[in-house]
Every structure is written in C-alpha cells, then in structure tokens.
Design a protein that fits this description.
FAD/NAD-bd_sf, L-aspartate oxidase activity, 550 residues, Flavocytochrome C3, Chain A, domain 1, binds succinic acid, flavoprotein, 5-stranded parallel beta sheet, FAD/NAD(P)-binding domain, alpha/beta, 5-stranded mixed beta sheet, 26 strands, 2 domains, single chain, FAD
C-alpha cells in the first residue's frame, strides 16, 4: 500500500488496507482520524469532497458550515453575573428539556462532561475560538440554553475555523508507514464489507472506478440528511450515505422521524438545495422574530420566548406564516448595531441574496437542518455490526432525543470521534479473514431526486399526518430499481432508502413529540419510547432492538 502524505492533490492512490477507514471528513471523522493516527494507526479517510486546500473557500461538510458554535461547560470560567454560572448538571438539564423525553441521561452526561477536554484538544490543534481582550473565551446563547455557554470562532464562522484547524493538524502529522492519514478525495463509499459477521472494509467509487480498502474497523462520519428536502441548510453532501450503508450492513437506526427544522433559514422563494442559515446566535445576541405586521412570533408560546428550544420556535414560525398568510417571518436585527462584525458569514449570505443588513429585517422560514436520530450506537460509537462505528450527525447516541439542543452537535462529534478512535486502536490487531474482491452495488430503488425532495417537503416536513405519510410511502415505493453507477445514483439510492425509513418511523409514532409534529395526533404520550428499525429482505422493519452486544 502506498503511503502518500496528506496535502493538496494527495490521495490514497492504490490504498487497499488500513487499520481504520473513516467515511467523512467533518469534525467527527477528522477527530477520529487524528486521534487514531496519534496512536500509531494507519487511517484512510474517504471524503466525498475535493482535497482540502487552505485557499479554497468551502468544504462540503456540515462542520464547515456550522455557525453558532460549540456548547461546552468550561471549568474555572470567569462569571459575569448570576445568569452565567454553569455546570454539567445545568447543561444536562437543558439537553433533557430540549430532547422531549427521549434524551438518554445516562449516555448524555459523560458526553457533556467530556466536552471541555475535547474542546481543549481542538484548541491545541489550532482552533482559534473568539476571545475577549483578557484572552477569555467569548460565549453566546442559543435556543434552549439557560446560560451563555456557546463558544464561537470568526464571529459566526465557527465550523470553518474548526475544519481548518483539523485539516492543518492532519497535514502536520508526520508521514510514514503506520503513522499517517491518507485521503481518498472525491470518492463515495458504496458498501461496507462484512465477512463472517465482522467488518472487513469498504467498497468505494472514485473517478468512475470501483475500489476497496480492507480494514478491521470502519467509522461512519457522513453527516446528515438535509437533502431529503428541497431546501436545507446542509451542504450538498448531506445525502444520508451513512444511514443507508449502516442499514445495508445490518445495523439498527432509531429516532429518524426527528428531523430538526431550524427556525431561521433565509427565505429564498423557489430555490432548491443549500440555503443560508441565520444562526440562532443572532437571537442569542438580541435579534427578535416578528411576523409581517411586526408582532412577536413567540409571545405567550414559551417562557424562553425566541430562545425556546428549536422545535418550539420553528413551530411558532410556521404558525405565524399560516395565520398571516405571508410566506415568511422576519428577524429584526435593529437591536444589534454591530451586526456585520459579529455575524460576517450571515451578512455575506444575506447580501448575496440581495438583502442589506442595514435594512435590519431578514426574511426567514424554517428549514431542514439536523437529523436527531441515526445509526444506533453505544457510548463508544459501536453499532450492532462488529467493527462498524458511527459518530457525529449520522449516529444516534441518545444525546439529542426528539430535538437536539443547539450547538450540542459539534461537541458530540468531537467527543464521539475521540472515543471511536480508541475503539479502533483496540481492534488494530484484527485482520480480515480473507481478501474480499471488489464488489459493485446491486439493484436498488432509486427515486428521482426532485420528486423525492418535493414529496418529503410536502408530506414529511415540520408537520405530518397519517394521510400525508401514506402518500409519501406510496411515492417512495414506486421508485424503480436500478444499479447505481455514478456518485449521484449512489446518493439517490441512499436518499430513497433513508426516506422510506424516515416515513416508517414517522408513521409508527402516533403522537407529537419534539421535532415530530403529527397534526392528526397532537398529544404527547406520557412515556416516550425510541423506535428502532432495520433492513430485512430489502424492507424497513421495526426491530424492537434494546441494546448493543459488544
Ligand atoms: C446555529 O448557528 O443556529 C446552528 C447551531 C446548531 O445547529 O447547533
């Protein structure tokens, strides 16, 4: 196996073996890759995007586009008042309150408690979080947080700063056999190879050629599912790849019905694909949500007003749109005189859409933003398939429950990426029982992407009903079967399979909870349960799965 070093244009070349394959190059994937390499593992990162170049404007990961920041409890932080005193207990209480009864406190506490040490590692790798004149980290507030605990970088360019720091740290790793990270850029994983019940590697498609990497451990860190919908805050790569790979490999998924809609995506009528996010931190710094008549959108809805948990605010926005018949609401930023300096990313995004920040009014609508559920993992990122790990948005650890607390996701990706690396270190001695030949995918249902997105946007969005879900299920079931032969078709197969799982999960949940609102079942059951699904003979079936045997 060649050992080309990380850098512009570098790739894994004829790579066919590694100690760890990481699928995805966001915060969870690169953190795992770095930690594993620090322990001497050889790592191949399969990245759907182009090779990283510091001078390139964008990377197609959700991490890169993250604005608000990282929610973290800092020890020994200088307190600026009674509203400022934080603790893991308080962070957990806020996480549980947002999570609509499905956040697992046992899994969540250690993740939150590991936050500061993980953020410290990120800072050591070069992440330049914003600080005040005394060098103290600046903190802001977002929805559902009872104190200011969100650290940020570049104002609202937190994700870009993190992505840059991680890539720089990767680039600084010495090359050499067994001590390097190699990238397969512009590549998509098409299948997880499982041999004798154990992971043996991945198959991938790159430049119209199929290849394999043998490895005893594979980490799915593929991000989210935003492109199930016509408009989303997610980058183009958020096409459910990891969910589909995990289902086909035999892993379980849970809580897929909880697709979080961000309350403030820039309103751009008729546009498809990634839309500009207006960070919740804008409200944390004093922005106010008003309807077309200037009335507060959240008055009387929740004691936390515009900074209530995200599901509450998104639904209040939807209600205001319905009641006024106006297609959007507005974020009034007149109370933020320094807006452009504090929010340069948002300012550039709205300017690109022809809106002048000096107008003090940003038109917004709810937009598909985050998959709260995902591939079921234990607290070490292990799935039910021996050797298959998942971390970041693709995973369901139990932290997010029915509605993720804002800015808990970068934290989770960081913490779980580190834990996944530790698992990979423990498995490095395992070798595939035999070489497995290159395999190409078989026929799979593939629905036209526009039809799929329009169906999901109309029937399975912020509000659902049994009739709408049945109509969506029928459309998805009509998908023709084809052999995916391009990256786009591999993505479309993943979107189609995941859409059927989301619809199955939303149909099974005959109540309203968190990010899942059923207009025909508005009540919330007294006791909440997660529903777990798997793929059986090509069909999504409820699995009644209760834990992970490791
Ligand atoms: C935001 O900046 O509003 C997004 C934060 C998040 O999704 O956690």
């Amino acid at each position: 196996m060649s050992t080309s070093t990380y850098g512009p244009g570098a790739d894994a070349g004829d790579a066919d073996r590694a100690d760890l394959v990481v699928v995805g190059a966001g915060i969870a994937g690169l953190t795992a890759a770095l930690c594993a390499a620090q322990s001497g593992l050889s790592v191949v990162v399969v990245n759907k995007g182009p090779s990283w170049r510091p001078d390139r404007g964008e990377q197609p990961t959700s991490t890169f586009y993250a604005q608000g920041g990282v929610a973290v409890v800092m020890p020994d932080v200088r307190s600026t008042g009674p509203d400022d005193v934080d603790s893991i207990d308080l962070h957990l209480a806020d996480t549980l309150a947002a999570g609509g009864g499905l956040t697992d406190p046992v899994a969540s506490r250690p993740i939150l408690a590991d936050g500061w040490s993980s953020v410290s590692a990120l800072i050591a790798w070069g992440a330049d979080f914003d600080r005040d004149a005394d060098g103290e980290l600046l903190r802001t507030r977002e929805g559902g947080h009872s104190v200011r605990r969100i650290i940020h970088a570049g104002g609202d360019a937190t994700g870009a700063a993190i992505q840059r720091a991680l890539h720089n740290a990767v680039a600084q790793r010495e090359a050499g056999p067994g001590r390097c990270i190699r990238f397969l850029d512009d590549a998509i994983v098409t299948g997880i190879r499982v041999d004798d019940g154990r992971v043996a590697g991945v198959s991938y498609l790159r430049n119209a050629r199929w290849g394999v990497v043998d490895a005893p451990t594979v980490l799915l860190a593929t991000g989210g599912a935003g492109h199930l919908y016509a408009a989303t805050t997610n980058p183009s790569g958020a096409t459910c790849d990891g969910i589909a790979l995990a289902l086909r490999a035999g892993a379980h998924v849970a809580d897929l019905e909880f697709i979080q809609f961000h309350p403030t995506m820039l309103y751009t009528p008729g546009a498809r694909g990634r839309r500009t996010l207006i960070s919740e931190a804008v409200r944390g710094e004093g922005g106010r949500l008003v309807d077309v008549h200037g009335r507060s959108v959240t008055d009387g809805v929740h004691p936390m007003g515009d900074l209530a948990p995200r599901d509450v605010v998104a639904n209040a926005v939807e209600t205001a749109i319905e009641l006024t018949g106006h297609p959007c609401v507005y974020l009034d930023i007149s109370g933020l005189p320094d807006f452009e300096r504090r929010f340069p990313t948002v300012s550039a995004g709205i300017r690109a859409a022809g809106i002048d920040p000096a107008d003090n009014r940003i038109p917004v609508v709810p937009g598909a933003h985050y998959l709260c559920g995902g591939v079921v993992t234990d607290d070490e990122a292990r799935t039910a398939v021996d050797g298959l790990l998942a971390a970041g948005e693709v995973a369901r650890t139990g932290l997010h429950g029915a509605n993720r607390l804002a800015s808990n996701s970068l934290l989770e990706g960081l913490v779980m990426g580190r834990r996944a690396a530790a698992v990979a270190v423990g498995r490095r001695h395992l070798r595939p029982t035999r070489p497995v030949p290159v395999t190409t995918p078989g026929p799979a249902p593939i629905l036209d992407r526009d039809l799929l997105q329009d169906t999901m946007s109309r029937r399975v969005a912020l509000r659902r009903s049994a009739d709408g879900l049945a109509a969506a299920a029928a459309t998805i079931a009509s998908a023709p079967r084809r052999i995916p032969a391009t990256v786009r078709e591999v993505e479309d197969a993943a979107l189609t399979l995941t859409a059927s799982a989301v619809v199955a999960a939303a149909t099974a949940r005959t109540e309203s909870r968190g990010a899942h609102v059923r207009t025909d079942c508005p009540l919330t059951a007294e006791v909440g349960e997660s529903h777990t699904f798997r793929l059986v003979d090509g069909e999504i079936r409820e699995s009644g799965f209760a834990g992970i045997a490791v």
